[in-house]
Structure formats: structure tokens, C-alpha cells
Amino acid sequence: xxxxxxxxxxxxxxxxxxxxxxxxxxxxxxxxGDILRNEIKSETELGRLADSYMSNGHLxxxxxxxxxxxxxxxxxxxxxxxxxxxxxxxLAQGEALDKMLEKHGERVNAVISLxxxxxxxxxxxxxxxxxxxRKDDNRETIESRLKVYQNQTVPLKEFYRxxxxxxxxEGVGSIELIFSSIENEIDRL
Length: 189
Ligand code: B4P
Prior knowledge:
Layout: E1 2-8, H1 14-25, E2 28-31, H2 32-41, H3 45-54, H4 62-75, E3 81-85, H5 91-103, E4 110-115, H6 118-132, H7 139-153, H8 155-162, E5 166-170, H9 175-187
Parallel strand pairs: 1-3, 1-4, 2-3, 4-5
Helix pairs in contact: 1-9, 2-3, 4-5, 6-7
Bound molecules: BIS(adenosine)-5'-tetraphosphate.
Residues 10-16, 32-33, 36, 53-54, 57, 59-60, 65, 86-87, 89, 93, 124, 128, 145, 175, 178 line the site of BIS(adenosine)-5'-tetraphosphate.
């Protein structure tokens, strides 16, 4: 089973590249952002709680996302593998994922980090906000998400670098070009 994490700042192209990776390698695409947005759309209790954090650009509490992931991984033991998109986002989530996989005799194989300058991230997210109307893609919330990324998510890079699993990829250029760099790395696993 292949377990690949796609890592990067908001707007770095995680969702875009994950969909392509999932299709090419037959992996199950687990996007915590999409899962939470679906809960909000369905007006569930979980969705209401998640919305109160997401609309301010804050992270949803660890326990909540860890429980969702644990359930999904446990219920899909026959999958060829998973691409984790937007998870983990904190050290606690990274440690929980390691434990979760260990339970099933599995491990994270690689962490692909998409590297993009902040100016470009802001531009992409504002553009997406204009097109999709995603309500957390406005200037104020984007700034808050980028701060949260620096403070709470970036420390995970060291965590995975120390495990020898971090692969940094230039996330600027055409979507196809970036995907071909990712393919080269996954093919080597
Ligand atoms: P996510 O849904 O993960 O959203 P995101 O980080 O903002 O970026 P996304 O991955 O969707 O965008 P992408 O880079 O693909 O999270 C939303 C919120 O949910 C979080 O802020 C948080 O509140 C909550 N949440 C999610 N997971 C959580 C967790 N584990 N713990 C706690 N809270 C959690 O693309 C952005 C844009 O760039 C797109 O419009 C795309 O078309 C464009 N783009 C992509 N590649 C490009 C390229 N090469 N060139 C030009 N544009 C490109």
C-alpha cells in the first residue's frame, strides 16, 4: 500500500496535483478540506463546528480531523493506497497519522512538498475566490491561513525531513510540468 502526503501552503496546488496523482496511481484521494466543506454543505453538526473555524482561516481542532481520517483509512483497508491532501497540518496530526498507519502495519512512504512564493499563493487564492466564490478565499482569511500555515504546519517539514521522507518540488510552472516532477518521484518509490 502506498501512502503519499501532498504538502504545501494554501494555494500551492495540493488539491490540483492530488487529483492527478490519485487518477494515475489508483490511490484514494483524502482531502480533509473537501470532506469538511461537504459537511458544511450538508449542514451537519460537524459542518457547523468546522465552519466556525474555517471561515476565520483557523484550523479545525486536531481530534476532529484525526477521527475522520482514522475512520476513512480503517474502512478502506483494501485501497491500493492513499493520497493525503491537506492532512496532516499540525505535528499532532502527523504523529497521529504515523500511529494510525502503524496499527495496520503501514507507513508514510513520501511527503511531496509544493514550494510556492507567498505573493503567488495570494494571487491564486484571490483568483479562485473570484471564480468559485469559496468564502475563505478573501484577502483577510487568506492572510490568516498563511500565518497558521507558517506557525502550525511548517514545523511538520522538519518532522518528515528527519524521517528522510520530505521531497521538495518547485510548485510554480504549468500544472503538467509540476505533475511530471511528482511522477518522477513517485515512480522511484
Ligand atoms: P483546503 O481545502 O486544504 O484548502 P487550501 O489549503 O486552501 O488549498 P487547496 O489545496 O484547496 O488549493 P490548491 O492548493 O489545490 O483547506 C481549507 C480549510 O479547511 C483550512 O483552511 C482549514 O480551516 C480546514 N482544514 C482542512 N484540513 C485540515 C486539517 N487537516 N486540520 C485542520 N483544519 C483543516 O489550489 C489553489 C488554486 O491554485 C486553485 O484555484 C488552482 O486552480 C490554482 N493552481 C494550482 N496549481 C497551479 C499552477 N501550477 N499554476 C497556477 N495556478 C495553480
